[in-house]
Specification:
19% strand, Mac-2 Binding Protein, single chain
Length: 685
């Protein structure tokens, strides 16, 4: 103990300074260091609760436009000096404002500049009930670790004291103005969990967790339609906020319907840092309700669907946490009865469709021993067909650097084989890795984030499989590049690529083991789009539903189909009568051929017509425009214009844009909501 100093005198300040000096000279590995630190901490804590015996003779605000704003200065022993802003908050400012007869504090700022002379006070910690700053705990006169750029400034507002505030007697506990107080939860995996933010005077800010409990959480959860609070998260597990801290010491009874009805220290009054931001998890009524609503929409689409069954919709239903098992079983029967014929009769590459069929059966825990006639005679199982189809695709890649179908379908083929516990041929994996390295996942001039996403899921499945990987380094490099490309595609609104690629992109990030923080913005963008009814196409819903529930196509690999929820009830659809819209808008249609020649047409269409209906009306006008469509899982797509077919074998497609902006929806989904120019241009990829 030779390093400890005996301290004379009776002030905590002297003890504190001596212990700090001792701490600098003690071996940190010794017991002496531990004792010094404990003593130092004890003294530090004690000095914060001892008030000064000396009185501040006067306080003033200088440099402002009136006496109630400016840089804070205090007078001590005949000298004026400044106050350091360490730990300074609205509670301390309130005490100063009342002491000056200036009401309460309105704003903390530093726009009144640094002072000169001594810095007299630091770490001021008022409770809010003091009548003078001299009554507030602090480090002591002339004790600080600051510079003048940290000088406190503030603005006070004189309040109307003619009204009686009733039971709200404490000057720093008040009910909030009901005009503010909108709440949201951010950075969670769904709208019913996250860091709490409240809205005040045009700004979102956080809430300090002092005195926060489940009664307060229950009010917030009810306010946003998310049931009740089930968990509180301290130390900001949903990341620290960066803007204003708007509320502290919130105190709800639990029966309030809005946070504005709860007592608190008032707007912008707190003694917290962002590490104390409130986070919470609600029982999730709103988030679950939205998901169940999407599931119901998919189930309704099964009833109204025309044409061949859609395995993508079935897959999304099977990957969900909530089911209507009888409807799913009935649709599975349709797939089993109709899909083999569709595969055999197709004149186009069936790689993607066959893969989705296999994934659908695997997701239902159905055996994969179904046999199909082979083109060269005889029969073969689905998986054998899949492998043969992939070999044909790979041969085309070796010859022409592109597959028979596209790399999206090729990736689905790898996923189908891998999730069925079939060893993926080295050539398939190598072809996909090379395509990533050569940046071949484009559609015209645009990067196909959908394709990157499916390739990421496929390669991750290969890496996670029990079979040896031929070149782990190249595989890891490709996965890293895919992840980087997906994350780099994020738009300011959070979507990855566009609204319709974000679901697959999030699935890929989940499959590749990304942290939730990396796709929180994308998830929030999906939720926002769901509320805006962006995903009215069943295929659009099918791609976001797994992502919203934290699953991906790789989940199929471990599905057991046991003890499944069967809670989704689908009510009969009410007949919908669509009245013709009497308002019409003019649409210009421009057709551009591969040689650059163009044709221009004009047509008037009812407001909110689909693009498909618009083209039908134009064709009926007999002005020389004709078109044809081909069915797809997304609905009809434009394949023939003015007698010219876009040949998939030649990597051709008809590119659609409105006023120069590419369309992300198909012709059956895109609505004409205003007069515009639709350009249909022959393109290639």
């Amino acid at each position: 103990m030779k390093h400890l100093f005996l301290v004379k005198g009776n002030t905590y300040r002297n003890c504190l300074l001596c212990c700090r000096h001792a701490a600098m000279h003690v071996d940190r590995s010794s017991w002496s260091w531990t004792i010094v630190v404990l003593l130092l901490v004890s003294l530090q804590e004690n000095i914060m609760v001892v008030t000064q015996s000396e009185q501040v003779e006067e306080v003033r605000l200088v440099g402002g436009s009136h006496r109630c704003e400016g840089r804070l200065e205090v007078q001590y022993n005949g000298r004026w000096g400044t106050v350091c802003d360490d730990k300074w908050d609205m509670v301390d400012a309130d005490v100063v404002c009342r002491q000056l007869g200036c009401g309460s504090s309105e704003w903390l700022n530093s726009r009144f500049g640094p002072g000169t002379g001594p810095i007299l006070l630091d770490d001021v910690g008022c409770t809010g009930n003091e009548t003078s700053i001299s009554e507030c705990p602090n480090l002591g006169w002339n004790v600080h670790n600051c510079s003048h750029y940290e000088d406190v400034s503030l603005t006070c507002k004189e309040e109307d004291t003619t009204e009686d505030n009733g039971a709200l007697n404490s000057p720093h506990y008040e009910k909030l103005d009901s005009g503010d107080g909108g709440v949201r939860l951010v950075n969670g995996n769904n709208p019913c969990e996250g860091r709490l933010e409240v809205f005040y005077q045009g700004n979102w800010g956080t809430v300090c967790d002092d005195d926060w409990d489940l009664r307060d959480a229950n009010v917030v959860c009810r306010q946003i339609g998310c049931g009740h609070g089930v968990a509180l998260h301290y130390s900001s597990v949903f990341d620290h906020g960066t803007d204003l801290i708007l509320l502290d010491n919130v105190n709800c009874h639990g029966s309030e319907s809005n946070l504005t009805e709860c007592s608190s220290m008032g707007w912008l009054r707190h003694n917290c840092g962002h590490h104390e931001d409130v986070g919470l998890t609600c029982s999730g009524t709103s988030g679950n309700r939205l998901i169940v609503s999407l599931i119901e929409d998919l189930l309704h689409s099964l009833e109204t669907q025309t044409g061949a069954p859609n395995p993508s919709i079935y897959l999304a239903l099977r990957l969900s946490a909530h089911h209507n098992l009888s409807m799913e079983r009935a649709y599975l029967e349709r797939l089993l009865n109709e899909m083999p014929g569709q595969l055999q009769n197709s004149t186009r590459p069936v790689t993607g469709l066959l893969a989705l069929f296999i994934l659908s059966l695997r997701a239902s825990c159905h055996d994969l021993d179904i046999v199909l006639p082979h083109i060269n005679g005889g029969t073969a199982s689905l998986l054998t067909h899949m492998e043969r189809q992939m070999h044909l695709e790979t041969m085309k890649i070796h010859d022409d650097n592109v597959p028979l179908s596209n790399f999206y379908q090729y990736s689905l083929g790898v996923i189908a084989l891998c999730t069925a516990d079939i060893q993926v041929d080295r050539d398939f994996t190598e072809a996909l890795i090379n395509a990533v390295e050569q940046q071949q996942f484009t559609h015209g001039d645009y990067v196909s984030i959908d394709t990157y996403a499916l390739a990421g899921i496929a390669l991750q499945c290969v890496e996670d499989s029990l079979f040896p990987v031929y070149n782990g380094t190249k595989l890891d490099t490709a996965l890293s590049k895919i992840k980087g490309t997906i994350l780099d595609s994020q738009r300011p609104d959070g979507h990855l690529g566009n609204e319709f690629s974000t679901g697959n992109a999030v699935q890929a990030l989940i499959a590749m083991g990304s942290s939730a923080v990396e796709f929180i913005g994308a998830n929030r963008a999906i939720w926002s789009a769901v509320r805006g009814n962006v995903y009215h196409n069943p295929m659009g819903i099918s791609q976001i539903l797994p992502a919203l529930q934290g699953t991906s196509y790789l989940t199929i690999k471990t599905m057991t189909c046991l003890n499944e929820d069967d809670s989704v009830v689908v009510e009969p659809l009410e007949p919908v009568v669509v009245l013709p819209n009497e308002n019409t808008v003019g649409v210009a249609v421009e057709v551009v051929m591969s040689n650059g020649s163009g044709h221009h047409y004009l047509v008037d269409v009812p407001l909110n017509s689909t693009l498909l209906h618009t083209l039908e009306l134009l064709q009926e006008a007999n002005v020389g425009f004709t078109f044809g469509t081909t069915p797809s899982l997304w609905g009809p797509y434009l394949s023939v214009v003015n007698g010219v077919e876009a040949l998939s074998s030649e990597r051709q497609y008809w590119h659609l844009s409105s006023n120069g902006v590419s369309l992300t929806e198909g012709i059956g989904d895109y609505k004409i909501e205003y007069g515009q120019t639709i350009t249909i241009a022959m393109s290639s990829y």
